[in-house]
């Protein structure tokens, strides 16, 4: 019985010494995220508001590419938001212009980066 307990204690101590430091794991994760230069992701959310009977589904699509030396935004991106499978908002930043569009009233706004200071 003493041998089993001693073996178990020694195994637990060995396994504990092989674990990585949490700060090292976080640093490696941060460095990996910073190394990504472009990408795409999709996300879907479901919301149930107290004042409504139905659950609302919202989806988001975003593609991006990192920009070097951009004073406004670190990435060019194209963002689409869907509410119940219909496009509701779309936004795009090219590095020079920021464009927003809404499908509800078919309007779009183009904001040139060179005019933003004014």
Short summary of the structure?
The chain has 118 residues and is α+β, with helices and mostly antiparallel strands. The protein has 2 helices and 6 strands.
Q: How many domains in all? A: 1
Topology pattern, helix = H, strand = E: HHEEEEEE
Overall 3D form? flat
Oligomer: single chain
Mean pLDDT: 83
Find the structural class using helix and strand composition: alpha+beta
Q: Ranges with pLDDT <50 over ≥5 residues?
A: none
Keywords:
flat; alpha+beta; 118 residues
Explain how this protein is built:
With 118 residues, this protein is of the alpha+beta class. It has one domain (2-115). Helix content is 25%, strand content 44%. The chain is built from two helices and six strands. It has helices at residues 2-17, 22-35; strands at residues 38-48, 55-66, 75-83, 86-93, 97-102, 107-112. The chain has a six-stranded antiparallel β-sheet, with no helix packed on it. Strand 2 and strand 3 form a beta hairpin. The protein is flat and about 80 Å long. The mean pLDDT is 83.
SSE blueprint and pairings:
Elements: H1 2-17, H2 22-35, E1 38-48, E2 55-66, E3 75-83, E4 86-93, E5 97-102, E6 107-112
Antiparallel strand pairs: 1-2, 2-3, 3-4, 4-5, 5-6
């Amino acid at each position: 019985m003493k041998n089993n307990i001693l073996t178990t204690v020694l195994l637990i101590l060995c396994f504990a010494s092989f674990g990585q430091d949490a700060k090292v794991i976080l640093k490696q994760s941060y460095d990996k995220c910073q190394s990504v230069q472009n990408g795409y992701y999709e996300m879907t959310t479901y919301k149930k508001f107290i004042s409504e009977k139905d659950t609302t589904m919202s989806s988001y699509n975003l593609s991006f590419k990192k920009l070097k030396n951009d004073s406004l935004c670190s990435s060019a991106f194209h963002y689409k938001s869907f509410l119940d499978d219909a496009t509701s908002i779309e936004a795009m930043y090219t590095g020079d212009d920021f464009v927003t569009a809404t499908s509800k009233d078919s309007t779009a706004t183009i904001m040139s980066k060179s005019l933003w200071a004014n």
